[in-house]
User: Fold this.
Amino acid sequence: MGDLRVSIDHHFDYDATQGGTLFSDPDHDPLTYTIALGGSVDAGFSVKGTHVVGSSHEQGWLNVSIVAKDGRGGESMDTFSVLVGPNLPPEVVHANPDQVLAVGTAVSFDATQGGALFEDADGDPMTYRVTLSRVPHGLSISRTNVVGKLDSIGAVRVTVEATDSFNASTQSSFLIAAPAPEPGPPNLPTPAFTYDDAKLPLPNKFRDSRKDRIPFWDTTPLDNPTTDAGGTLGRVLFYDKRLSLSNTHSCSSCHQQAHGFASPTRFSEGIVGEPSRRNAMGLTEVRYSIFDHFFSDMRAGPLETLALMPIQDQLELGNSMPRVIEKLSATDFYPPLFSAAFGSPEITSDRIAKALAQFLRSLISYNSKIDAYTNPPDGQEFPPLEAVFTPQELIGRNVFLNSNCGHCHTDDIQAAFEMRNNGLDEVFTDPGDGEGQFRPASLRNVAFTAPYMHDGRFATLRDVVEHYDHGVKNSQHLSLLLKDSTDAPRKLNLTEEEKEGLIAFLNTMTDEQFLNDPRFSDPFQ
Assistant:
């Protein structure tokens, strides 16, 4: 027989002979049984008749051997083990589906499904706690029942927590949404905007990176190059509020063009009106990544994978891909857009992901002031520094180059490829990758991507400069680039002139054409 399991401090009672069916005697002789116990926790168990009973306060194993004798010299033996492990928490066995209802709809149901939502593997009794997100839209909780009447457009997250008698708990949540009317069709130009980078006047370094990945580590896969039709479809999807369960939010709700496709608020709010865990990073130059992983903790990649995650996150757009596909398929304009991009009108999760990734990879900035020096037009020599930068900007450039800024914000795109602990806290509440490390955002259009850092704690570029000047905190995993020769956090001790110069130099990374390019704007306006 196979091994069994019991949780710590749980009573175990098992018939080792399986009701007399474990052995059979060819002669039909009556059998007697001898059961012996061993193992690391055998002291907590005993044999009563043919049953093994007891419990253990410790994790370990119990070995059980059963000998069957027929009284005429014949015998047979079997063994099994009982593994004693930690208490098992409740499991979700019948999840509540999301519900889409009209404003004014009366709601009354048991969120635990009469106790069927969870199951406890140890058979422990469970208690339940049901809560709503902070904007309840007319709903409330009565014991485990969701009751009330939806009074406005939006979404409510219902969270059900089951706790067993050993204090192990599990949560399950679902959404109740009253959607806004779907937006009308997008306004698209004829002919289509150009997104295919082969047709764009990109500087040579950008072209080289698209061809050979280096120097900027272009992430474009062979099976999903950016095309004009694909970029067009991706733009429409990026701005379409249909992608949210409530028709109230889109990707652009958190990533706004005027702010370098970052969010102007410290934490963004999704369809349930609760703040995100981290500040939304700017998407300028997002296509470039040596590791092809993204988010501030680099938890997801490639962009085709990342693109679908916010759609299905309850705190963001809160939708499911089957529902998204159904909504897009019901429009007149999406099937032709998918046909243009992929050769047929079929709408799939994979195609949605690819189109969004194509649009994201089209967000290339190369027309800032700094590009006039680092990326001159093809065939032209690098101009003198003094011909491009003001004296103040040159002071800032020297600070940038001599203060290790360029080690994290590298190359001509000022994008960061590796995660670093940049000394925000001695003891961090958000561990990032586990060591307080986060992927720095690109400095392209940084003057417009405030607030700064993964948690948006710094409101201005001056705040950021002050942090690196004298505010770096020591911690176990602080980047070596931010330590001095004594292994202490480095202080730059910049003068006021140098601080203002550094900010001025950072402003040279602003690409006004990018921030106002109609190719990247909202087609539903």
